[in-house]
Amino acid sequence: MVRSVGTYDEETWKEVWKRHGSPVFRHYHAMPYLLPAMLKLLYQHDSQVLFNPEFFQEREAKSIGATFVQIKPVAQFADGAVELGYHIGTRGNGVDEPVWPDDLTVEVVRGKS
Question: Could you tell me what percent of the chain has a pLDDT over 90?
Fold first, then answer.
């Protein structure tokens, strides 16, 4: 993305950094450290924009009997030529059989009959 659209100018970077409390991270900070820290900053400073309920949808995962919240598809196509969405729920390891299904819309993949 940097190659195609570039980066922010120095003034913008400084404003965003300052607005988020000027966090400092080090090369030895792994994801278990960085992810909670960044989510906390985003929630504190950008929750009104990023965590808008209109951006999320509930999804049912029938195979595990759970409902979870996920981000709605972002892209939109003119005249509804393509309607993006999620049609198959998530499932845990070992639920599907190791075959390619004839019907890609099945909730759980079973062996071919």
Answer: 43
Q: Whole-model pTM?
A: 0.58
Please report how many Cα atoms fall inside a 13 Å half-sphere around the Cα of residue 51, on the Cβ side.
10
The helix/strand/coil state of 37 is helix
> Dihedral of CA 82/90/96/32: which sign?
positive
Q: Which amino acid is at 47?
A: S
Calpha distance 81→51 (Å, rounded) = 28
Reference 108, options 74, 77, 76, 62; nearest CA is 62
Bridge partners for 56 per DSSP: 71
Position 103 confidence tier, pLDDT thresholds 50, 70, 90: confident
* Cβ-based neighbour number of residue 59 at 10 Å: 15
DSSP-based three-state secondary structure for 53: helix
Q: Is 20 exposed, middle or buried (0-12, 13-18, 19+ CB in 10 A)?
A: middle
Q: Where are the domains of the chain?
A: 8-51, 52-113
